[in-house]
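User: Hi! I'm a student and our assignment asks us to look at how structure tokens line up with a sequence. Could you show me two examples?

Assistant: Happy to help. In each example below, the sequence comes first and the structure tokens follow. Example one:
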Amino acid sequence: MTDVTEQPSGDESPLPTTEGPPTQEQGPLPVTLPVLASVPVQAHRCANCQASLPDPLPRYCGQCGQETRLRPPTLLEFLQQFGGAYLSTEGALWRTLALLLWPGQLTLAYFAGRRRHYVLPLRLYLTISVVALMTLRFGTSFEPDVGVDEASALAGKPNVQITAIDLGPGNWRAGIDGDRFFCEKLPEGMCARLRTRLTSDPTQMKIQIQEAKNRFLGHTGTAMFVLLPLFALWLKLLCWGSRRHYTEHLVFALHLHAFWFALVALAVPLTRWTNGTGPVLGLLAMAYPLVAMNRVYAQRWWVTAMRAFAIAVLHGLTVGLALGGVLLATILF
């Protein structure tokens, strides 16, 4: 018997020739991209105190006052930072100097609470005193004359006349008379120190005297700063009825001495370029504290004049003693 195999017609799909389940035709595989985690936007924070800053970003932090947009400073900004961040035409220093010209007004403004608008008293005093001492150091010339007789110098025995210390006949004296060193009624250690400084050759002696000028100015600035609390103490004792605290008297003392140092800084160029300004500056230095005391302490003029005179005597004595000590320290050290 013959098996008849039925052939598929043209309309029918051919039978699969392989065993197994039928497979579907697959397209190109999708590309899987990495999923980036969303990073939350950090709020603006101050780089100094880490306080949150609002949006839009302010210029200064409301918590600590530092600038919020930090960048390398320009040369002008660097100089302003070097000078205390107030050396500019719109800074507090120029407003302070302008008000300092009016006796007592800067102190009254400080007492009224306007302290951020002007330079603080201690900083103002230090700034002006440093400028005044630098003006004295570099703006004044000092050519010491040690009194050397040329004929004696050629003979090998210079006739030098120097008196380093002289407190009157029969008192403390030290110096050189010709080729003889004398030291009377002074401690032996001090005499030995003076002998070393004064018995050198004239050229070396001129150098030492020139250096002594710079040391004297440096010691003077320190002495005046140390005497400020004592000046405030005189004010406290003589103006007891004003009911002001000691620190308030100290603020007035700082402003007053800052004005005096400003006059010193002006006196160096003015006395060199003009004539007759010395007496005018001297009268101004005496009239300014009188008017300032009258405004700050609100007293009658005759009371203010008496207290100002008493303070001038007390302060003059202490300053004289301090400068005497400074001169002695300059000679010895």
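Example two works the same way, sequence first and then tokens:
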Amino acid sequence: MSILQRRLIPNYLTFSRIFAAIVVIIFLSLDSQIVLFEFTFMGQVYIFHTNYVFAGAVFLVGTVTDYLDGSLARRYSWISVVGKIWDPVTDKILVNSTVIMLGYLNVVPIWVSIIFIFRDTIVESYRMSVAQHGIVVPANILGKLKTVFQMVGIIVVFFMLNSGDDSQWEYWVLQNGFMLLAVIFSVVSGSYYIYEISKKINESITPKLIYGKTSKAAVSTKSAVSAKTNKKPVSPKTVPVAKANKKVISTKNTHKTKKSAH
């Protein structure tokens, strides 16, 4: 494998998440009545349906590639512009498409899907709109925790779905706890990103708009003021002195003329 091909490995892993999202959607669209295996634990029967197990396995592989592409790019200096742009995009494609399908199938509450999609849409739109001004807001611990809880919550939902007794609170917490934490961190991290971006806008864009791009009227007004300011005032004594000097010169010339006449 050539050096160029090795440098493209992180990009291959990044785009593989789009393929993983498509496969997850296909598995979720299949019949959920096919049982892969089941077992009993502490009096509870756990049933694992084929489509959910395979969808969860593919989603798990997709989350692993999210770690691998960034790790390889940083370790071997294989960072590229394509990777920087598409890495967060493919993450959103994998997670949001899965969440939409789970909401459509009533596996998770529809309001959970709406919060995830709404948060990501606002934050990413805000980021792209200010990126043209050179404003970059890096990922923080809140956003990373949101992603972790989101991915773990989806995987747990896949493997715990239709297993055990929904009436027991322990089972409910195990199946939905990570997803609820993901919702909380989604709202908190989204609010923090908006706050940070707004603060940087006030610090960098607003001064440029006020002082860097003035209107033509402001420029002409400023030029007129500067012209008036730079104009040297004429001393009131300058004109009389000049006239007096002219009179003295003319008087001297008259005396010279009279002397020459004598």
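Here is something you could point out in your write-up. Residues 169-212 form the longest helix (44 residues).
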